[in-house]
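Friendly challenge for the regulars: who can give me the structure tokens for this chain first? No prize, just bragging rights.
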Amino acid sequence: MAHDVQVAVDCAGPHELADFWADALGWEVEPQDEAFIRRMVEAGHADESHTTRHRGALVWRSATAIRSPDPGRPRILFQAVPEGKAGKNRLHLDVRVAAELRDREVARLVGLGARELWRAAQGPHEWVTLADPEGNEFCVG
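First reply, four minutes later:
Bragging rights claimed.
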């Protein structure tokens, strides 16, 4: 039995974090249907406080997602939660690149707003652990 998987990321600023990860991965932020959002508010199924404007578009305040241009990859949903990050992630993303491109990719991600935390190796495998703009750890290896 095949199942589809979505990765959900709890965060404070879903739209800003989705922008970071879309740039980081070369993916796209899923467009939200402004007309649908307006209809939901007008019909009383949602309130204006459930919406916001991001990059000039009307969007749902609490969540947004990114998707790969390649079919079959999981969608990543960024959802607002009231509490901040506490402790180390129990799940993280690994951004895989060729070894000779690792340092250039780390520099690019730092330029987008990531922060380098440490470098590590185990046997022949090397990676760099970074934190995204909200402090969520991820590895480049």
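The beta strands are 6-11, 28-29, 51-54, 57-60, 63-67, 75-80, 93-95, 115-122, 125-131, 137-140. DSSP finds three helices and ten strands in the chain. Your move, everyone else.
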